């Protein structure tokens, strides 16, 4: 009932004409040709993004729009000021699902795979992309929509420190503000508008953010069964609570190699010293087989290059940084925070995968089936339990959920170290000259 109301409303909405076009064509529409993938060395025409940020870091990538997954970033590389060449990071990065189950059990949506997420880019006004460039997104059968914003944004302090602490004489106080290359698209799915955003920081951190805004579903104000919150005056109009379970799919290409190792690090109490101070022990476990991982205090994962090393001789790696998540227990595939799977071309979506690829399993938890993990694909699951509040009207203020990947030993020192400290003398244990 709820689903049909919502779907009818969807089909009537002008913005969803694309959806009706796709739906009327049946499954064949799902196989609509996507732009040719870029070659290993470059991007197809018009699909390159490259930006040198003020602190000297350059990010490069190719982009295209998938009619289903939306914004896809490929061949992502990172080149800090003191590196002579771009350092490859990701072969591809994109959404893999937004699963939206309602608490009253009445309906559940897969907003990426069931609604042709990438077929509904919203037009961006110049003011929606301050200081940036809006690029056209082409959806088959439609006129190009100016919908991809590429811009830079300040991110606050990059660092602040005094070099006398590491042996420079006289010492200097160094400080800098940081910047991000920011890339985003807004896609509508029914009444919701989702902002798919990637921030590429000058310190090498990549932030994936999904913003939920738009409007609450007008068909879902009948949660009289205690599964919703009253939003209008008094206690009548109750918006049903629901989850947004967002999945991203990352295919790493560290230093240009598809092959890499995955490690899980854990830190746990390990007794006490004679003074009564706790000792901690950190352990590293190599994940040799496909794994469904669960976040825990003091646990993190990294993808480690098999061959690439920084100038200190340390293997280059990228850490998966997860923060808050409302893990949705009823599905097995939403029950874990991260999945590391061996690359398989037909494993594209975290759920609903068989609608597109009958040769593979349907959900990401089933992709984990004991294969050796030598070419890892990382699936990150971040859930948000949306208990609506009065402030969600209207439009809803953006709610963000996401994660980061952070460079770990990719460069021998900070990628934005000021020039006067970019010296072997300041790398490692500080050494003071005689008399200091
Ligand atoms: Cu919501």
Commentary on this structure:
The protein is mainly β. The chain has a single domain (2-259, 369-426), classed as Beta-galactosidase, Chain A, domain 5 (Distorted Sandwich), CATH 2.70.98.20. 5% of the residues lie in helices and 44% in strands. The chain is built from 3 helices and 21 strands. A 10-stranded antiparallel β-sheet has the order 6-7-8-9-10-21-18-17-14-15, with no helix packed on it. Strands 1, 2, 3, 4, 5, 13, 16, 19 and 20 form a 9-stranded antiparallel β-sheet that branches. The longest helix has 11 residues, at 2-12. The structure holds copper (II) ion. Copper (II) ion binds next to strand 13. Residues 58-410 form the Copper amine oxidase catalytic domain. It holds the Pfam family Cu_amine_oxid. Residues 415-436 are annotated as: Disordered.
Give the count of structural domains. 1
End-to-end distance: 78 Å
Please bin the fraction of helical residues: under 10%
- What would you report as the Rg, rounded to the nearest angstrom? 24 Å
Topology:
Blueprint: H1 2-12, H2 17-24, E1 48-52, E2 58-66, E3 70-79, E4 87-101, E5 108-110, E6 133-137, E7 145-162, E8 173-189, E9 192-201, E10 206-214, E11 228-230, E12 238-240, E13 242-252, E14 260-272, E15 278-286, E16 291-293, E17 299-309, E18 315-322, E19 338-342, H3 364-367, E20 376-386, E21 396-408
Antiparallel strand pairs: 1-2, 2-3, 3-4, 4-5, 4-13, 6-7, 7-8, 8-9, 9-10, 10-21, 11-12, 13-20, 14-15, 14-17, 16-19, 17-18, 18-21, 19-20
Bound molecules: copper (II) ion.
At a glance:
The protein is mainly β and 436 residues long. It has helices spanning 2-12, 17-24, 364-367, and strands at 48-52, 58-66, 70-79, 87-101, 108-110, 133-137, 145-162, 173-189, 192-201, 206-214, 228-230, 238-240, 242-252, 260-272, 278-286, 291-293, 299-309, 315-322, 338-342, 376-386, 396-408.
